[in-house]
Design goal:
Helices cover 31% and strands 21% of the residues. The chain has an eleven-stranded mixed β-sheet with strand order 5-4-6-7-1-8-15-14-9-10-12, sandwiched between helices. It has a two-stranded antiparallel sheet with strand order 2-3. The longest helix is centred in the first third of the chain and has 16 residues. A hairpin with a 3-residue loop joins strand 14 and strand 15. The protein starts with a strand and ends with a strand. The protein is globular and about 55 Å long. It is α/β, with parallel strands linked by helices.
Length: 379
Amino acid sequence: MRVPITGVGAVASIGRDAEEVFAALCAGRSGLGAMRGFDHALYNGRQLFEIDDRPEPGADRALRATGFLLDAVGQAAADAGLGDNLSGIPVLVGTGLRELRSAELWWRDGTPFGADRLHFGTALRERFGTADTLTVSNACSASLYTLALGADLLALGEADTVIVAGVDAITESMHGLADRVQPDPPAALRTLDVNRKGTILGDGAAAVVLRREDLPWPGGRLWGRLRGVGMTCDAKHPTAPDREQVAEAMRQAHRHAGTRPGDIDLVLLHGTGTPLNDLVEITAYGEVFGDAAGGPVVTGIKPMTGHTSGSAGLLSLVVTLQAMATGKVPPLVNLAEPIEEAAGLRLVRDREAKHEVSLAQVHGFGFGGINAVAIVEGA
């Protein structure tokens, strides 16, 4: 599999387009700030990675996730030279929560919100004329699942061009759940650190354009090529990851891509900063890579973007493509003392690294044992 990626878009707490997001990551800038949308008196954790688009602290509004998605899709389409008319192009959206925050505001405050807005197809049709949309709600690996589906549509001849996207806006119910399982809230998200205490949620969206290799391109650039996506769904526990199935997703990705662990130059971790997830991820990585584990440079973006749920995998993929294009790899910030299992890895710490990246591996793991790993090559 070698599927060209010809457009990218991204929105996060640290930037409103892909270029701004990448520049902030390379500079080590965090989007963590005082919680704006929810009542501070109700929660222990009062910091989130929020996109600052509300009129004032404490004032929330509906359809924020939809807005982020439209921004990211519009950026990717423009970058690929597709324009605003996407009527003949399937748009596949991965998400964890869809427009749940809007439903919360409708139920609690009576904020106007129609059932046709629960999914994203209505807004995509209004903005871009899209007739073929699909939303996959697959926890935190959702956008990498849609990436695999998009590649399959091209391979089967069902489409010539596909836009793949991921989006989530923080909901109060999700924040409340996280707050209850983290009664001593983390002051920062510390991926792979001995003193990591848990994850912190973030708003985010990302999108990429996939095209058949044999088609002429209307514009834009070749960012890279998707080589393969490995996916597993073990469903062994509601929340806890399974090391064997995480490792199997990595192996499957290499089988689809026709690559070996020793070929990889860069690994973008899922890296949630939770005690169990980080341990399982890095242990599975060591198991699959073996003696090659110390070869790739290893980093992650969540300490600066927060855990952006369903958009997380694709956001990491967009950052990976930018790292390939620029030779700059963002650092894994907030890492003071790496866990023992990460010893010997080439962790990018403190500041950006200059590194030539030809082949990269991107992780996305979610609740319910829903795992996805993508392998992408540079242009």
